[in-house]
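hey
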């Protein structure tokens, strides 16, 4: 919990627009007994997502989420074997896309998005307190897996076509800006 809280406090300085979601995640950490458990429905639980940057251009990976019937970033629930919070994002990306990821000691948190998940699969409506980490791919190769049937690279010109939520667009802008600054 301390590592997550530290990441959240570091995050708010560069991205103050996400302060409401940041506060919700901090309250979840402070006031719920199992904030990382997928059985924690009131008010929800922490999930992690990977915004995987293409190695050569300004695009990132999207997966088609069957249950929600839309294109989103790859991500999911925290598992016991995940050593650090960003390991959840890395594991989910690998499981869903097969992307080859560059080693990173601590990927940059580029977004926090608290959003509702509709009831289904014996789960009530609940909130995902999603932490979105920028990851770098070392190859343009991605492929559907057992978990996801469609995987694509998405550039800013494709955002309307894939009907991306504003939260994904904001995270992508941030990740691409950070990468541009790092490569100068």
């Amino acid at each position: 919990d301390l590592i997550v809280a530290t990441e959240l406090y570091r995050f708010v300085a560069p991205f103050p627009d996400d302060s409401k979601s940041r506060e919700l995640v901090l309250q979840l950490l402070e006031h719920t007994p199992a904030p990382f458990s997928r059985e924690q429905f009131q008010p929800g639980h922490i999930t992690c997502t990977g915004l995987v940057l293409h190695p050569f251009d300004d695009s990132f990976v999207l997966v088609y989420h069957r249950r929600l019937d839309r294109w989103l970033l790859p991500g999911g629930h925290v598992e016991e074997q995940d050593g650090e919070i960003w390991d959840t994002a890395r594991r989910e990306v690998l499981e869903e896309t097969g992307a080859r990821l560059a080693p990173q000691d601590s990927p940059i948190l580029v977004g926090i998005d608290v959003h509702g998940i509709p009831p289904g699969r014996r789960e009530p409506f609940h909130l995902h307190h999603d932490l979105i980490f920028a990851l770098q791919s070392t190859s343009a190769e991605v492929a559907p897996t057992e978990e996801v049937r469609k995987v694509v690279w998405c550039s800013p010109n494709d955002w309307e076509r894939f009907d991306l939520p504003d939260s994904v667009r904001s995270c992508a802008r941030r990740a691409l800006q950070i990468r541009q600054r790092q490569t100068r």
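The first helix runs from residue 2 to 12. The two ends are 34 Å apart (CA to CA).
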